[in-house]
Amino acid sequence: MTTDTPNIPRAQSLDPKVKSILEAAFTCFMNYGVQRTSMADIAKAAGMSRPALYLHFPNKDAILEALISGYFTQAAADMADALRQAGSAADCLLAAMLAKDGEVIEKMMLTPHGPELLDLKQTVAREVVAAGEDQMRAVFAIWVKEGVAAGSLTLARTSGTAEGFANTLLLALLGLKAGFTTIETYREGQRVLAESFGAMIEA
What we know:
Blueprint: H1 16-32, H2 39-46, H3 50-54, H4 60-83, H5 89-101, H6 105-110, H7 114-118, H8 126-150, H9 162-178, H10 183-201
């Protein structure tokens, strides 16, 4: 199904040096974990001195927050795009789930430090994570509201609101991510969730 969900502002084009720092930091976080990574590690991976790194970011926490914020901004925009595609509610939801993961989720799941990277609510960036999750809830809620208005979706079988449906769906997705065992079981879990939630609201 297609809906006219509003565009979500995408992240502005990053300064090449900042982009290099964020890419280097992500690599370090995957290799060493967030806690064990130092600013010196990030500077070395980015090919710059520590003083040069500090010109862009005051500390590691600021780099982590920038990474997370950028991820959520892009993920929310990609989810909105995915929900515009033609197809059943389940098809749209599955496409949005895949868009939510982006290109890095499998890398994160396969690294020894995956659990730490996937549980960023326990870091200093927890407020950034919470704000990002609110963005995702809003994307789902807007899609449901517009689908109901267009007659392609219904909330009759949910006994709730679009916001409540979006919140329950996101909680289910977060729980699935937290309890994964393999990439295959995670993807299968996404498919099952998409089919279940899609059938619930298909008009």
